[in-house]
Automatic annotation (TrEMBL):
SUPFAM superfamilies: Putative DNA-binding domain
UniProt xrefs under InterPro entries: DNA-bd_dom_put_sf, MerR-type_HTH_dom, MerR_fam
SMART domains hit by this protein: HTH_MERR
Domain HTH merR-type: 1-72
Claim: Electron transport is one of the keywords in the record: no
Protein name as annotated: HTH merR-type domain-containing protein
Length: 177
């Protein structure tokens, strides 16, 4: 494979020329050499390094973290990757809690604006489209029941559920069944 000029490397990588120059200015990616006209040339080693940089960026790692990872310190590399994974877990937990809160607020709004969500099937479809799994929906009911039991009951009734089904849902939401 012949060396690539910066524009060709940028095109193949789906990045801008400016991004590659930025990576160079930070010491993340340096050309293999320059040709007689001063054009930067990149070989297989630089292409592989760019793939690695892109993978780290896609994983949400910061430039300083990537610089450290590329410095080839295995212990530090493992720690940075583990830290990022833990950060993502925390972010996902926060987003899940926000999602549950928004769904509860939407349920309360549904009580105030009847007709938006017609029945149980429409509500379940809405929750699924928001990314809720069956387990997420059960957790949502448990949180709603714990925080606002009367509003939860009214919401379930607004979906057209009968007294037996409302009682059953509220029971397992409280951990009774």
């Amino acid at each position: 494979m012949s060396p690539l000029k910066i524009r060709e490397l940028a095109r193949r990588a789906g990045l801008s020329r400016a991004a590659l120059l930025h990576y160079e200015s930070l010491g993340l990616l340096t050309p293999a050499r320059r040709d007689a006209n001063g054009y930067r040339l990149y070989g297989p080693e630089q292409i592989e390094r760019l793939r690695t940089i892109r993978a780290y960026r896609e994983a949400g790692l910061s430039i300083p973290a990537i610089q450290s990872l590329l410095a080839n310190k295995p212990e530090a590399s493992m720690q940075l990757l583990e830290d990022r994974l833990l950060d993502l877990d925390r972010e996902i937990s926060v987003l899940r809690e926000q999602q549950i809160t928004l769904a509860r607020l939407l349920a309360q709004a549904t009580l105030e604006l009847p007709g938006k969500v017609k029945d149980k099937d429409a509500w379940v479809a809405l929750m699924r489209s928001a990314g809720f799994s069956e387990e997420d929906m059960k957790r949502w009911h448990a949180v709603f029941e714990a925080q606002a039991p009367e509003a939860h009951r009214k919401f379930l009734e607004s979906l057209g559920l009968g007294a037996v089904e409302v009682k059953a849902i509220r029971g397992w939401a409280r951990g009774e069944g």
